[in-house]
Design brief:
With 361 residues, the protein is mainly alpha-helical. The chain folds into three domains: 1-99; 154-214, no CATH class; 218-359, no CATH class. The protein has helices at residues 2-10, 15-30, 38-51, 57-67, 75-82, 86-95, 101-110, 113-120, 127-134, 139-146, 155-164, 172-176, 183-189, 195-204, 209-212, 218-224, 232-242, 248-256, 260-271, 275-283, 287-296, 301-315, 330-335, 338-345, 348-351. The radius of gyration is 27 Å and the shape is elongated.
Length: 361
């Protein structure tokens, strides 16, 4: 009789009646003393889903918080709540034991950054869920995942993030602090982390520091041995190029360290372009130029965003501090192919700013 009464109330579309019904069903589902059958609970869950749009967010959020850790409630209802607005979904995403890997993967694919952050902080998420979160290429999400020591991160993903940490320093300490981090990942990171983190690696991983140590004076000695007749940065880049040691990694590391000349000369050498042309690419108002140049070197999208953001202060030095900063053109970057980007760099009209990239084909 109780369920029939609830179904009758569900036909009343008055907001006050719907809120009353929502609260009534909430009490039934949360109260373990009620002996409803599974079918009856499914019906109540279905009613909640049908009338939720007419109920205030604060009421829905309170219900979700009370229900989050329950296991004797309809799973479909929990999945529905997990896909609600983040204020409602958060306690479900954090604590609900009824959400399984396929449910979480769908949320990662279709819901907001806030939903993804909540999943990244969730206990004992699987390898596939960790990989899906990292594939979004959002540093905030990845950092949350790294700080979640219960997350089951696969070795390949840890290796990848170890390499990324050279260009995204905020990954370094959380990655090194992960339990059971494989020693080869720490050994690789030793080459670019700060002195304090090198000490941390030596103290926490069984490694031979002498075997890993990099001669930090190599650059200064190289520059000192070069004649002052030429630009030291240009000659250093030339030396690295001839020895096969020049890479996009060195180029981006130079930018991170504020070595702007080294960054520019490295970029030019890797693209096989004149330094003046590269400076025009880097600092042009048309952000397509920098995006195309980075894609021509097959640079990861997260690293492209880092390059764009780090060069913004130079590019926009003439603008007011009150001006809105342009965001990196990530949607455009994702559409670019490496071969097409190389071809665009050979298009004189595009390089001169007379046509847009879309017209180069």
């Amino acid at each position: 009789m109780e369920i029939k009464h609830l179904l009758g109330l569900a036909e009343n579309k008055q907001p006050e009646q719907r809120e009353f019904l929502y609260k009534k069903i909430s009490d039934f589902l949360v109260n373990d003393d009620n002996s409803f059958t599974e079918v009856e609970k499914e019906i109540m869950g279905d009613i909640i889903c049908r009338i939720t749009a007419d109920v205030e967010k604060s009421i829905r959020a309170h219900f979700a918080k009370r229900l989050a850790k329950k296991l004797n409630v309809p799973k479909d209802l929990m999945v529905f709540l997990a896909n609600e607005e983040i204020e409602v979904a958060l306690p479900i995403l954090q604590d609900c034991g009824l959400l399984f890997e396929p449910d979480l993967l769908e949320i990662i694919k279709h819901r907001s950054t806030q939903h993804r952050l909540a999943v990244a902080a969730r206990d004992n998420i699987s390898e596939d869920v960790c990989t899906a979160l990292c594939e979004i290429n959002n540093p905030e999400i990845t950092l949350t995942l790294l700080e979640n020591h219960s997350a089951q991160m696969p070795l390949l993903l840890l290796n990848y993030l170890g390499e990324q940490s050279e260009f995204i320093p905020q990954y370094q300490l959380p990655l090194l602090k992960r339990p059971f981090l494989p020693r080869p990942v720490a050994e690789k990171m030793y080459r670019w982390v700060s002195m304090s983190l090198r000490e941390y690696i030596i103290e926490n991983f069984e490694i031979d520091a002498k075997a890993l140590d990099v001669d930090i004076h190599d650059r200064e000695e190289t520059i000192g041995a070069i004649s002052g007749d030429c630009d030291p940065s240009a000659l250093l880049v030339e030396k690295l190029h001839k020895s096969g040691e020049l890479s996009s990694r060195f180029m981006i590391k130079s930018l991170h360290q504020g070595e702007i000349d080294l960054f520019e000369f490295s970029f030019a050498k890797l693209l096989d372009l004149d330094i003046q042309v590269v400076r025009k690419i880097v600092y042009a108002e048309n952000s397509e130029l920098l995006a195309v140049a980075c894609r021509a070197l097959d640079i990861d999208r997260v690293i492209f965003k880092t390059i764009y953001d780090l060069t913004t202060s130079i590019r926009d030095k003439g603008t007011s501090i009150l001006s809105l900063t342009k965001s990196a053109p990530m949607d455009f970057y994702d559409l670019l192919g490496t071969d097409a980007a190389k071809e665009a760099l050979r298009n004189a009209e595009f390089m001169a700013g007379e046509i847009r990239y879309a017209e180069t084909g």
